[in-house]
Design goal:
With 373 residues, the chain is α/β, with parallel strands linked by helices. The chain folds into 2 domains: 108 residues, Aspartate Aminotransferase, domain 1 (Alpha-Beta Complex); 244 residues, Type I PLP-dependent aspartate aminotransferase-like (Major domain) (Aspartate Aminotransferase, domain 2, 3-Layer(aba) Sandwich). 40% of the residues lie in helices and 15% in strands. It has 12 helices and 15 strands. A 7-stranded mixed beta sheet has the order 2-10-9-8-5-3-4, sandwiched between helices. α2 packs across α9, α5 runs parallel beside α6 and α10 packs parallel to α12. The chain starts with 12 loop residues before the first strand and ends with a helix.
């Protein structure tokens, strides 16, 4: 049996849909010596993570913490804890991740009511209102930043419609949190989840979530067990909160260290400064891409600053150019998904990857490749 060679992957500039580059301080935090997951010092670190997540989500929700798994598990956590067999859920679908929510709702034994929008366009609040006029679902779910299409979805009007009809309002903020304003309390968001590998700029592996008191009340009144033991918040929440922490699972300690440091970096910079940095570099990237003949998929008023979805100009090979960017310049960008496979690129400028230097490197590399034919 041969011994595998030492890990030594080529350093890349991560400018795809995630993960993003990670600050050296976050990598250093991951090398901090382990302590026990019930050690009083670790409990204090968990408390710090919860407090900083509340500030990031702009919420006072007590049940705000990080699920010990990736953003998709955060999605599943939020749905399986509030939905029971026989419930109804309205899911807004304008890309891959709305479809994923619909799948999870069905796996909960609940009925899906879909409100669809064409890929590259936001959900129309009037379509949600119309659907709610003939049904009374337990929740309305929507993606704030649809990573597959680059669409920045307005939330407040749909939140108001959901609450007027007695439904919980659930939001996917995997790509937006830390790079654009997210106001859970002001926007009436009852349930929200994100991921650590996008604008937070920590490695993938944790999913920040937050539940309003109204959502907690719904969970506490459920008549059936949550279908997932690992994601059952009736148990998990006792590990993250309360005077005496109850063992549920062994937390990914090094990942919690990383998230703690990544959040510290966010608040050292300041939220408004961070949002402005993402906006400013988006404009720089947009101007350079449009100068080369690229067209954005979403309309200007619905474009994400941190995830730029553009059509591939006629005559250029998707995979070939992305391979050259990776192999010749060590720059990773993302290809299209679903309806946009082979037709679009998804260019991320998220968190630590959102710099003028990243933008200029990509634009220069693209000009050289595309001008060479």
């Amino acid at each position: 049996m041969s011994v595998s060679q030492e890990l030594n992957p080529t350093a890349r500039y991560l400018m795809g849909p995630g993960p993003s580059d990670v600050h050296p301080r976050v990598l250093k935090a991951m090398a901090t010596p382990l302590i026990g997951h019930l050690d009083p010092q670790f409990i204090e670190i968990m408390d710090g993570v919860m407090e900083m997540l509340r500030l990031l989500f702009r919420t006072k929700n007590q049940l705000t913490f990080a699920v010990s798994a990736t953003g998709s598990a955060g999605m599943e956590t939020c749905l399986v804890n509030v939905l029971e067999p026989g419930d109804e859920a309205l899911v807004c679908v304008h890309g891959v991740f709305g479809n994923r929510m619909s799948d999870i709702v069905e796996r909960c034994g609940a009925k899906v009511i879909r409100v669809d929008a064409p890929w590259g366009q936001p959900i129309d609040p009037h379509a949600v209102k119309k659907a709610l006029s003939v049904s009374k679902p337990k929740l309305v779910a929507i993606v704030h930043a649809e990573t597959s299409t680059g669409v920045h979805q307005p939330l407040q009007e749909i939140s108001n419609i959901a609450h007027e009809n007695g439904a919980l309002f659930l939001v996917d903020a995997v790509t937006s949190l830390g790079g654009a304003d997210v106001r859970a309390d002001d926007w009436g968001i009852d349930i929200i989840y994100s991921g650590t590998q996008k604008c937070i700029s920590a490695p993938p592996g944790l999913s920040p979530v937050s539940f309003s008191p109204r959502a907690v009340q719904v969970m506490e009144k459920r008549k059936t067990k949550v279908q997932s033991w690992y994601l059952d918040l009736s148990m998990v929440r006792k590990y993250w909160s309360g005077a005496k922490r109850a063992y549920h699972h062994t937390a990914p300690i090094s990942m919690i260290y990383a998230l703690y440091e990544a959040l510290r970096l966010i608040f050292e910079e300041g939220l408004e400064n961070r949002f402005e940095r993402h906006r400013r570099n988006h404009v720089l990237l947009r101007d350079g891409l449009e100068e080369m003949g690229f067209e954005y998929i979403p309309a200007p008023e619905y474009r994400l600053p941190m995830l730029n979805a553009v059509k591939i100009p006629s005559g250029f090979n998707d995979a070939e150019i992305r391979d050259r960017l990776l192999n010749e310049y060590n720059i990773e960008i993302g290809g299209g998904l679903g309806d946009f496979a082979g037709k679009a690129w998804r260019i991320g400028i998220m968190g630590h990857s959102c710099t003028e230097n990243h933008v200029h490197m990509l634009l220069a590399a693209l000009r050289k490749i595309m001008n060479a034919g």
